[in-house]
Amino acid sequence: MNPVKLVVYVGSLREKSFNKMLARAMKENAPEGVEVTIGDFSQLPFYNGDLEAAFPAEAKRLKDEIRAADGVAIVTPEYNRSVPGYLKNMIDWTSRPYGDSAWDNKPVILLGASTGNIGTAVAQAHLRQMMVYLAARVVGQPEFYMGQAKSKFSDDGVLTDEETKKHLVEMMSKLAAEIRARA
Question: Rounded to an integer, what distance in angstroms lies between the CA atom of residue 33 and that of residue 38?
Answer without folding.
Answer: 17
